[in-house]
């Protein structure tokens, strides 16, 4: 059971470079999320999606874009990386909350912007 | 707007002692509440969740939490901690709506004193 898989696991970028983080889930979940985790700030929601073809802004969306072209994939893009985007990024997925289920998390992507 | 507050940034308890981690939430409707644990360098693992019914919920690893609507709290407890419980603990709140999303608190780091 793969669950939620994030690629890559580590990445170093130079300021101004772009990159895409890939999240894939094999649980047929409707909802997918991207969070960033910074020391002392917990997990902050960047963007989320409630279904294929839909996306919405979370708490800290600036500097990021997302796409959900396929139900199983949720992509997070950084068009022009900045040192402030150095963080650990987590993807998660869940079924409808009302069905009594929680979010399942990937193992994280550690991104350093120099 | 949903919000979650974990007032304790860092707690140290002796092995074998009891533990209570505090969590307060703000949400207009009935919330769905979660506790997650994160070991160093790892993703997040669900400890327990509350959706409805019995306000005292049991989780994995001997943890329990009690939902108190009047106090807007969902505190996590364990009667006797083990050294392996050292980790970071996150409280989270979700909602069932067309814009469903899960919001996390800033986390409480738990250290265990031998």
Structural topology:
The complex is a heterodimer of chains A (114) and B (114).
Chain A: E1 4-7, E2 10-13, E3 19-25, E4 31-38, E5 42-49, E6 56-57, E7 65-67, E8 73-78, E9 87-94, E10 104-105, E11 109-113
Parallel strand pairs in A: 2-11
Antiparallel strand pairs in A: 1-3, 3-8, 4-5, 4-9, 5-6, 7-8, 9-10, 9-11
Chain B: E1 3-5, E2 10-14, E3 19-21, E4 24-26, E5 32-38, E6 44-50, E7 56-58, E8 64-68, E9 73-78, E10 87-94, E11 102-104, E12 108-113
Parallel strand pairs in B: 2-12
Antiparallel strand pairs in B: 1-4, 3-9, 5-6, 5-10, 7-8, 8-9, 10-11, 10-12
Description:
The complex is a heterodimer of chains A (114) and B (114). The model of chain A has no long low-confidence stretch (mean pLDDT 92). In chain A, a hairpin with a 3-residue loop joins strand 4 and strand 5. The relative contact order of chain A is 0.33. Chain A is an all-beta fold and 114 residues long. Chain A is built from no helices and 11 strands. In chain A, the strands form 2 sheets. In chain A, strands 2, 4, 5, 6, 9, 10 and 11 form a 7-stranded mixed sheet that branches. A 4-stranded antiparallel sheet of chain A has the order 1-3-8-7, with no helix packed on it. Chain A has strands at 4-7, 10-13, 19-25, 31-38, 42-49, 56-57, 65-67, 73-78, 87-94, 104-105, 109-113. Chain B is an all-beta fold. Chain B is 0% helix and 52% strand. Chain B is built from no helices and 12 strands. Chain B has strands at residues 3-5, 10-14, 19-21, 24-26, 32-38, 44-50, 56-58, 64-68, 73-78, 87-94, 102-104, 108-113. In chain B, strands 2, 5, 6, 10, 11 and 12 form a 6-stranded mixed sheet that branches. In chain B, a hairpin with a 5-residue loop joins strand 5 and strand 6. Chain B is globular and about 45 Å long. Chains A and B meet through strand 4, strand 5, strand 9 and strand 10 of A and strand 5, strand 6, strand 10 and strand 11 of B.
């Amino acid at each position: 059971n793969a669950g939620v898989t994030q690629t890559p696991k580590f990445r170093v970028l130079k300021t101004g470079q772009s990159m895409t983080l890939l999240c894939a889930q094999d649980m047929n979940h409707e909802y997918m999320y991207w969070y960033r985790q910074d020391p002392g700030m917990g997990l902050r929601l960047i963007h989320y999606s409630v279904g294929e073809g839909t996306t919405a802004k979370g708490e800290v969306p600036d500097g990021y874009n997302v796409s959900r072209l396929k139900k199983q994939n949720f992509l997070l893009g950084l068009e022009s990386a900045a040192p402030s985007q150095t963080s650990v990024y987590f993807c998660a997925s869940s079924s409808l909350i009302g069905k009594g289920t929680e979010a399942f998390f990937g193992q994280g992507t550690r991104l350093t912007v120099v | 707007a949903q919000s979650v507050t974990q007032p304790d940034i860092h707690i140290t308890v002796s092995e074998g002692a009891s533990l209570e981690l505090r969590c307060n939430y703000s949400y207009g409707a009935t919330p769905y509440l979660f506790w997650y644990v994160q070991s160093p360098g790892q993703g997040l693992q669900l400890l327990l969740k509350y959706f409805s019914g019995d306000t005292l919920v049991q989780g994995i690893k001997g943890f329990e939490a009690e939902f108190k609507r009047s106090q807007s709290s969902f505190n996590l407890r364990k009667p006797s901690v083990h050294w392996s419980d050292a980790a970071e603990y996150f409280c989270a709140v979700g909602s069932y709506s067309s814009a469903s999303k899960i919001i996390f608190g800033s986390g409480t780091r738990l250290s265990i004193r031998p």
